[in-house]
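Attaching the record inline, Q. Sequence:
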Amino acid sequence: MNEIDDQPRLSKRMSELGLCSRREAEQWIVNGWVRVDGRIVDVLGTRISREAKIEIDQRARVQQDELVTVILNKPIGYVSGQAEDGYEPATVLIRPENRWSGDDSGKRFDLKHLQGLAPAGRLDIDSTGLMVYTQDGRIAKQLIGGNDVEKEYLVRVQGMLSDEGLARLRHGLTLDGVKLKPARVVWQNEDQLRFGLREGRKRQIRRMCEIVGLKVVGLKRIRTGRVMLGALPVGQWRYLRADEGF
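Structure, as predicted:
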C-alpha cells in the first residue's frame, strides 16, 4: 500500500466507512462536525490514518435523518435522469398532487425534499416501474456503487425461447465484450419472463433477449433490493418508510 492509500483524505475515508457521501462529508468537515482522534478537523483535503477514530457530531446525524428517498412508478416516455432529446425527466412527476394516497410513511411534503434529489440508477425511456430518487448519498452509493443489489423485472416478450436460450439468459451472455453476471430468469406466464439482475448495463435486458431471438415489448421494474413497487400506481410516488431498506 502506498502512502496515499495509507493516508486517505478524511472525506474519502468517511465515505468508505459508510458514514455518509463524499459531498456530505465535505459539508460536515467545513461545519466543524467531524473529530479525528478527539480533535476537530475542519480543513478539506486533510489526510488521516486508516486507523484513526472518526466521530460525528449529533448535528450531522440530525441533518442526515432529514434526508428523504422517494419511490416513483415511472411511466413510459420519461427519462430517469436529466432531460434529453425533448423528453422530460421523471422528477417533474414528484409533486404533491402525484403523491400516492396509500403513502404511509408519515412524512409531510416539503419543497426542500426536491433539492438535491437525484436518481439512484436508471430506467430506459420505454420502460416503466420502480425508480429510486434520493438525497441520501449512502443510499445512492448502495444502489449504484456496484454493491450487488438485485433488481427484479417483468419482461413481456415475443418470439420462441428454447431451453438452451433460457440457460444462456441465466448465465452465458456477453455484452460489450464483458461477460454478464449470473441472472435469475424464469417464465412468469406464457409471454412474460421474470428477470433478477445484479448489474445494470445500458438496455441490458432488451439486448440479452435480442441475442436469444426474443423481442421485448414491455418491461417493468418491480423490485430494487428489498423494496417492492407493490400497488404504487404509474406516475405516482411515495416516500421510503423509516422501516424500509434496500
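The chain has three domains: 3-65, 69-145+227-239, 151-224. The domain at 69-145+227-239 is CATH 3.30.70.580 (Alpha-Beta Plaits).

More tomorrow.
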